[in-house]
Write a structure and sequence with these properties.
The protein is globular. The protein starts with a strand and ends in a 6-residue tail after the last strand. 0% of the residues lie in helices and 54% in strands. Strand 11 and strand 12 form a beta hairpin. By secondary structure, the protein is mainly beta.
Length: 328
């Protein structure tokens, strides 16, 4: 097994969920902080390791007439990859709850400086897109370019969970309907070139074999067409659950963060074939030393991030594990 350089980041009970490059060697990380109070959305700007507490910004949503009780950021985007945001700005997405709502989770978009003071927008999969039913949860997982990807489910409808794409520029919702797939999730997105209409989306789905597999698919925002769908099982063998949560481009393809029933966390590396299809994966399992639980939440270059827990210790801790490029 490959042994990466592993270290903790953030403080106790501060969860890392997403990452995007910033300026120089700095990054933007997103997540939440639990502590002793409500779960609060969190943004960080600074070096990936060691993280600098001066760069941590609790940033709960501020929306008129809403008493926010819980919030979490997931994937961010930055002006480095999306110049339309304006220098020094980010876009981060996630979910939140508020006291006046009759449903559970609402999607949210924040756009502005990392330290706060920007524009907040509530986004929910519209009832009109799901046959007039009540959308019980909208959870936005990642954003890049003009798109947001995430998941939703319906009140009182078992096994109704599905993935969505929200096109900010067109104010257009696209719900996933992939052949042979149910309970599809979309957790990570990568725009295939600044300004491009081509995106790569990762997550998971239940295939016709009844197992949950990691998913990668290309989507064109101009035509609304999905293509090159490929499903993955950890180590290319049947597994109860394989799921991708983060994506970053490499010169040959992508590195993916995720998890499986066969490994605590995993890093998967794939290439893009000349015809645009995706290769089989090279798999690297990972568990933080001494941990009983390790998750793979996001990835930056060759650095895997997530949280871990140690038996007999209260709470969780975020980590980063940096793999030597030649081992991936």
């Amino acid at each position: 097994m490959t042994t990466p350089d592993s270290t903790t980041i953030f403080g106790p009970n501060q969860f890392v969920t997403g990452v995007r490059g910033w300026t120089g060697s700095d990054v933007v990380l997103t997540g939440n902080s639990t502590g002793d109070g409500p779960t609060t959305a969190l943004i960080y700007v600074g070096p990936l390791t060691p993280t600098d507490s001066a760069g941590l910004y609790p940033n709960p949503p501020v929306l008129t007439g809403q008493t926010v009780t819980s919030s979490t950021f997931y994937g961010p985007d930055t002006f480095l990859f999306n110049p339309t945001l304006g220098e020094g700005n980010i876009r981060a997405v996630g979910s939140y709850q508020y006291a006046e709502s009759d449903v559970i989770n609402h999607g949210m978009i924040y756009q502005g400086p990392p330290q706060g003071g920007g524009l907040w927008t509530q986004i929910d999969v519209p009832s009109s897109a799901v046959g007039g039913r009540t959308v019980w949860n909208t959870i936005a997982h990642s954003t890049m370019g003009d798109l947001v990807v995430g998941n939703y489910d319906l009140q009182g409808v078992p096994l109704s969970a599905n993935a969505f794409i929200y096109d900010i520029a067109r104010d257009r919702w696209t719900l996933f309907d992939l052949p042979g797939c149910t309970l599809t999730t979309a957790y990570g997105i990568w725009q295939n070139g600044i300004g491009s209409s081509s995106y790569t989306i990762v997550g998971g789905t239940r295939s016709g074999h009844g197992i949950n597999q990691g998913m990668i698919v290309r989507y064109d925002s101009a035509s609304g067409v999905f293509s090159d769908l490929k499903l993955y099982s950890y180590l290319n063998q049947p597994a109860l659950v394989t799921h991708f949560e983060g994506i970053v481009a490499t010169p040959a393809g992508f590195n993916l963060a995720g998890g499986s029933s066969g490994a605590s966390a995993l890093l998967a590396s794939i290439t893009v074939n000349p015809d645009g299809s995706y290769s089989d994966a090279t798999w690297i399992p990972y568990a933080y030393p001494g941990a009983t639980i390790t998750t793979g939440n996001s990835i930056y270059q060759n650095a895997l991030m997530g949280i871990f827990a140690v038996s007999g210790t209260k709470g969780v801790q975020s980590y980063v594990a940096t793999f030597a490029p030649e081992t991936i």
